[in-house]
Amino acid sequence: TEYECKRVVSSRVHGKQWYQRRVHGGVFAVLPAYEADLYGAKYVGAIHGRFLTFAACATVLGPTLLLNLRKMAENEAINDLLSKVDPSVFTSTFGASVGEAQTLIEAKTLTISKLMTIMPPGTVDPSPFLYNNTMYTMAGLVGVASVLHFMVRPVDKKFFEKE
Predict the structure, then answer these.
(1) Residue 39 to residue 154: CA distance in whole angstroms
(2) What letter does residue 98 receive in the DSSP assignment?
(3) Is 64 exposed, middle or buried (CB count within 10 Å of its CB: 0-12, 13-18, 19+)?
(4) In the chain, which ranges are continuous DSSP H helix?
(5) Per-residue confidence of the chain (163 residues) as pLDDT tens digits?
């Protein structure tokens, strides 16, 4: 039934969130000890504080960047389709000229799927390609993060404060 299906989906979502919180909690719990091993124990509080600050910034800025990239790709795809559509068919379908398309997009009346219904035969649907730039950007960021991670080296013990 519909109720059982919603219950299964809901339990999976909650299970994934529970697991994610546990993983993040474990990482944040172990990180100060790791940082102390790398940099010495004296300033681990300040180092960990900076890490948490930048992790919070990345939590906000990362998805914002990726959502903006996807929105840009969607706008480019719609504009590309608008350049190929027959203006008279567009006007009869949407009740506005092609020049007023931006207003229709903002009102969410004009979408790629609706636009594809009036496109000439043989027009390629751009929907599967909307996330290409986003995925390439994510791959690049992960690559840069990996390089930076492997550049981290422990501070030489001679620089540690002797007690």
Answers:
(1) 6
(2) G
(3) exposed
(4) 2-39, 44-84, 87-94, 101-106, 112-116, 132-151
(5) 565 666 666 677 677 777 777 777 777 788 888 888 888 888 888 988 998 899 889 989 999 999 999 999 999 999 999 999 999 999 999 999 999 999 999 998 899 999 999 999 999 999 999 999 999 999 999 999 999 989 988 878 787 777 6
pTM above 0.85, yes or no: no
Q: How far is CA 34 from CA 39, 48, 113, 146, in A?
A: 9, 10, 50, 17
* Amino acid making up residue 58: A
Shortest CA distance to 78 belongs to which of 109, 48, 57, 42?
Answer: 109
CA distance 140 to 134: 10
Q: How far from 162 is each of 41, 80, 85, 98, 104, CA to CA, in Å? A: 11, 66, 74, 74, 69
Residue by residue, what is the 3-state secondary structure of 108-124?
Answer: CCCCHHHHHCCCCCCCC
Identify the CA nearest to 27 among candidates 17, 16, 35. 35
